[in-house]
Structure formats: C-alpha cells, structure tokens
Design a protein that fits this description.
The complex is a heterodimer of chains A (about 350) and B (about 270).
Chain A lengths: L4 E9 L5 E9 L4 E5 L6 H9 L6 E6 L2 E2 L10 E4 L11 H11 L4 H14 L15 H14 L4 E5 L7 H18 L3 E5 L2 H7 L2 E6 L2 E6 L1 H6 L4 H6 L4 E8 L2 E4 L2 E4 L7 E6 L4 E5 L7 E11 L2 E7 L5 E7 L11 E6 L3 E4 L2
Parallel strand pairs in A: 3-8, 3-9, 6-7, 7-8
Antiparallel strand pairs in A: 1-2, 1-4, 4-5, 9-10, 11-12, 11-14, 12-13, 14-20, 15-19, 16-17, 16-19, 17-18
Helix pairs in contact in A: 2-3, 2-4, 3-4
Chain B lengths: L1 H7 L1 H28 L1 E3 L9 E2 L2 H8 L1 H34 L5 H7 L8 H14 L6 H25 L3 H9 L4 H30 L2 H7 L6 H11 L2 H22 L5 H7 L4
Antiparallel strand pairs in B: 1-2
Classes of the chains: A alpha+beta (about 350), B mainly alpha (about 270).
Chain lengths: ~350, ~270
C-alpha cells in the first residue's frame, strides 16, 4: 500500500544556514504523526513545505502517490491549522467556513448543511453568525479546525495549534482532536514542541533536532528505546551516568551489562527514574552504594534523589509504600532494572 | 455654590476650565464665521449683527464662477482620489509585503515633497510643466494635487496592509484561493479602514489645495480655494464667510461619515516606520 503522504529526501536551507536536510517520512492513511523537537529544529519548515508555503531546495513530496512538490498551496489536497491569526476577522464564522467551499463551487444548501455538521463536530453548534472577535482563543481554534475539516483534505496539517491556549484547554482540545480523528479517519501531521502532547496524541512521533530526523517510532518505542542520546535526553526524565566498556561489557562501578551496541571506551549509561531500584544498604556490596539526598512525595509515587558519590546524583521514582522504610541521609544500594547505553560522543 | 465646587474637587474644575478654553479656541472662529455669513449689517461694538440676512449667500451663489468652481473642485478631487488609489495601493502593498533593497529610502522619499517650501517646489515643477505643455491643463492640476497626497496614500495603507498577518493570507491560500482572490477577499477588506481614511484625506486635501492650483491651473482651472481668494480680496468679509462655509461643509460631512474609521490608531500606525 502506498503512503498517504511521502516526503523523500527533502532539503531546505535558508540564507542563514539553518534549515532541514535529508528528510524522509511516510505517513499511512488515517495515521496521526507528530513532528516533535525544540524550536528551530526545522519541524515547521517540514510542515510548511508539505502545505506548499515553502519550496524545498531538493527532494519530493507525494500525496496519495501524486507529486505535489511544485504545486502552490491552493492546489494541494492539504489543509493547515495555524498557530494563531487563523480566522478572517471581517467575516462571520459562517463566511469563514464557507470561503473554501464557495471557491469549490459547492451548492449553497450543501454548504449550509456541511457547516452545521462541522460546527457540531467541534462542539460549537449555532456559532455561525458570530464574528471571530466574539470568540475565545479555544473557540477560534475550533472554528479554524472546522474550516480545515470541511475541505476534507487528504492530509490535515496542524502547526502547534494549541500552544497559544492555557494548559486545561490544551488538554481538552487534544482529547477532542483525538476523537475527531477517530470519527473522520483523517490523516494528520501535527507539529509541537510539547513532548507530553506528542506522546499522548500520536500514532508515531518524528523526533527532530538541528534540521534532521533523529528517530521515527511509536510513542512507547520512543520512550522505551530512544535511538540516540539526543532522543534519550529530550523525551521524558532520564538519568545519565558515565560508564566504560571493558571485556565487552558495560560497567558503571560494580554494575555491568552486555555491550549490545559493540561500543568501546567511555560510554553514557541512561536509566529512567522508574527503572531505578533502591533498598536499604545491606553492607554486602550489591549494586551501587549511595545516600538518599531528598524524598519528595508526589501523590501516588515519590521522587527520591540519591547521591551516588563519584557517579553523581540520580533521580528515582518509587511507589508510595516503598519509601516508608526510607529517610534522607540513609545509606542505600541502587540497582537498575533497564538501562540504555550510548557512545559518550 | 461653594459647597458644589468643594464636592467636585479642584481637579474636575481645572479639567472643565481647560476643556472650555479648548472648545472656545476651536469652535470660536467657526461660530464667528457662521454668524458673519448670515449677517446683513454688523457694526463694531455690538456682540451680534444688527441685521440678519441671506444677502451674501445670494450674492456668492449667483456668481457664475462660484458654481463652476464647486463642480470643478469636486471633479478634480474625485480624479485625484481615484488616480492615487490606483497608483498608491499596489505600492503600499509592495512596501508592506515585499523585501527589496532601499525599501526604507523609498518609503521616506514620499516625505521629501513635504520637506521643502511648497512654493519653491511648485515653481520648479511649473518650469517642467511648461516644457511638457501641462500648464493650464486638468492633468497638470491633478498631478500637482497628487504630489501632496502621495505620502498619506502610501504610508497609511502600508500600515493597514502590514496589520494583515501573513498567516491570514496563507490560510486563505490553503483553503484554495488564488493569490488574486486572497487579495480581493481577505487582504483588501481587512485593510479597507486604512485605505478609506487615506482616501478621505486625499479627497479633502485636493478640495483644499490652492497654491499649486494657482500656479499651474490659472486661468482656466479655478477651483474653490482660488475663487475664494478673489472673493475675500474683492468683497466684504461676509462673502468670504459664506464661501468658507461652502468650502468647509464637504470636509465636515466626509469626516462625520468616516469618523467610525478615523481613529488615532489608524493614523498613528501610518507613521510608524518599521
């Protein structure tokens, strides 16, 4: 099956030297793919190239198997929801929504029907006569979403659509977007710098850094098996320890693991806080010896930081019951249930 | 009385006094003009005319060149406004949207015509107009008028276009509109208040223009201000008052009609150079 959207070897450089290079991406029909990365990593450049607002220096963009690389935005089967300044303030909500449909010469009765349905879908029924200035930020973004949905695009592009909204509203909109995606089966490409948003929304995440793709995988995969040190640092909380490879095993103090990646010399060992086990020191020398520095109870779990001496301070997440026997200053043995190893540089 | 001033407070009293002075300063001359226009006889120490009459209205409106000059003034103002819209709106859009070398220099160059004494500028233009046979022609007068308004007509719409965000144009392209359609349906309507304000100013400026018209349009193109000069110098002041009311009326009417659009914001944003 051919992909709904395919980006092949795309490069776009700006005069400043920034830009993206070697972008390869395939999005299946009905999939929600997130481009995630810090600001300036090129994720918006990729999205705008797909939408037709930027012309790539090289590479191809195919939608439903058709090459659209040279087409202007109005002739592409894409629709974009922008971060802000989305609606036209001199038009009512109805006119905003009808604009694209009128261009497509849809009969008036059908337009009216489609708009009623679209507004119901974004939970704003009866808002036709209002003007954008009479709506809140969240409502405006819903109208913008409805405007894009009405065009039944082959690919829906969303450029940080919720970043201007407050946290609570952002959560609501995320859930609604998920529901809408389930109902309509639309293919979506979503750009965000918010990893929580990316992890909760996406079928797959594309992690970008400095204009290239670091990893493309499902959220759980990205979280559990980040392919590069960068992804490991960027996604979720992670502890890093200095390690060395000796006798084909990776060593941190007394702990060792198999050298799966065939590395050599000094390495970085990454471990998630929830994969760190601690127990009161038995004096027998199991695991790494450390001292509890601080215990913060955060509801159903606790954030415990442990000073490992020469290995630095690490954060661990412990279940509520486990910390009753612990107190700060106490000597403990630390073990790691699951580690990731990366070359130091 | 005293308790009242005490209750109001000194601040309000000062505000009230300032407002009164302000109102007298602005409305006083207009009021005087109005009374003068309807006076038949008005001798020195009296506060109001001894005799009210429409005598001077009759006199002014009967004069042939007056009626003719009113028509001519409005014709010229309409042509000037239309031509400068055609000329300046695309320029303003370019200034707002495109990047090109020396953009700021070009934008500032519109200020140049306001930087020199008008008469000197007009005389040198007149020399040029003689060579081009534009003296005493309608086109010559229109061109002189346009020189005055180029700055308003470019700067204010430029700011208006700049206030239309690129994303608003892009989202229109995105839903399927061609660049031309985007301009017609999105950009132009959103910039319209600024364009209208600039057009009103252009129209009024052209109605009012006297120096350049005097130099280039005499003898055949006598607009209202030119005719007023001769009336003021040849007849009693009441005739001049009548005429200046005729000259002021369109200004007031247009400003009242456009007051919803004319805000300090629109004006001020026109003079920000970014």
């Amino acid at each position: 099956m051919s992909a709904q959207l395919a980006v092949r070897n795309m490069t776009k450089r700006y005069k400043t030297g920034e830009g993206v290079a070697g972008i390869n991406l395939e999005v299946a029909k009905g999939e929600l793919v997130t481009l995630l990365g810090p600001s300036g990593c090129g994720k918006t450049t990729v999205l705008r190239s797909i939408g037709g607002f930027l012309e790539p220096d090289s590479g191809d963009i195919l939608i439903e198997g058709r090459d659209v690389t040279k087409l202007p935005p109005e002739r592409r089967p894409t629709s974009m929801v922008f971060q802000s300044y989305n609606l036209w303030p001199h038009m009512s909500v109805y006119d905003n929504l009808a604009f694209g449909l009128k261009i497509r010469k849809m009969p008036k009765a059908e337009i009216r029907e489609a708009i009623t349905a679209a507004l119901r879908l974004v939970r704003l029924p009866g808002a036709e006569k209002k003007y954008p200035s009479q709506l809140s930020g969240g409502q405006q973004q819903r109208v913008a979403l409805a405007r894009s949905l009405l065009l039944k695009p082959a690919v829906l592009l969303l450029d940080e659509p919720f970043s201007a909204l407050d946290a609570k509203l952002r959560h609501e909109m995320r859930e609604e977007l998920r529901e809408i995606q389930a109902q309509t089966g639309l293919t979506m490409v979503f750009v965000t710098h918010d990893q929580e948003e990316a992890l909760s929304l996406s079928d797959r995440i594309v992690v970008m850094n400095h204009g290239h793709i670091e990893q493309i995988a499902a959220p759980a995969e990205i979280y559990d098996r980040p392919e590069s040190l960068y992804v490991a640092q960027f996604i979720g909380k992670m502890n890093f320890l200095e390690g060395v490879v000796e006798e084909d095993r990776v060593w941190v103090g007394r702990l060792d693991w198999p050298n799966g990646k065939r590395l050599s010399g000094s390495v970085k060992v990454a471990v998630r806080p929830e994969d760190v086990g601690i127990k009161p020191s038995s004096g027998g020398g199991e695991g790494l010896a450390g001292t509890i520095k601080q215990i913060m109870v955060l509801g159903h779990y606790a954030d415990v930081s442990v000073d490992l001496g020469e290995h630095g301070v690490i954060r661990t997440f412990q279940p509520k019951e486990a910390i009753q026997a612990l107190q700060s200053g106490q000597r403990v043995d630390v073990s790691f249930a699951h580690v990731l190893v990366y070359p130091a540089h | 009385m005293r308790w009242y001033f005490g209750a109001v407070g000194p601040r309000r009293i000062i505000e009230f006094l300032l407002l009164t002075v302000f109102a007298v300063f602005f409305a006083g001359p207009l009021l005087n003009l109005l009374v003068l226009a309807f006076s038949g006889q008005w001798t020195y120490p009296h506060l109001l005319p001894d005799q009210w009459s429409f005598k001077w209205w009759n006199f002014v409106l009967r004069k042939d060149d007056v009626a003719h000059s009113i028509g001519l003034s409005f014709l010229i103002a309409t042509i000037v406004t239309a031509l400068s819209i055609v000329l300046c709106i695309p320029a303003a859009y370019a200034f707002a949207r495109l990047r090109f070398p020396l953009k700021r220099f070009f934008l500032f160059s519109f200020l140049l015509t306001h930087a020199f004494p008008k008469m000197g500028l007009y005389v040198s233009i007149a020399v040029l107009f003689y060579q081009l046979n534009l003296m005493n022609t309608l086109l010559g007068v229109v061109l002189i008028h346009m020189i005055n308004v180029l700055m308003f007509m470019t700067w204010i719409p430029t700011a208006a276009f700049r206030n239309v965000h690129a994303a608003q144009e892009e989202s229109a392209r995105d839903v399927g509109a061609t660049p031309f359609r985007v301009f017609r349906s999105i950009t132009l309507p959103m910039a319209m208040p600024g364009i209208l304000v600039a057009s009103v100013f252009t129209f009024l400026n052209s109605l009012d223009e006297a120096q350049g018209t005097f130099l280039v349009g005499i003898p055949d193109y006598k607009t209202m201000p030119i005719v007023m000069y001769s009336i003021i110098s040849d007849f009693p002041s009441s005739a001049g008052a009548v005429f200046s009311i005729i000259l002021t009326a369109p200004t007031i009417l247009l400003l009242v009609a456009a007051q919803r659009l004319v805000s300090a914001d629109v004006m001020a944003s026109g003079f920000q150079v970014k």
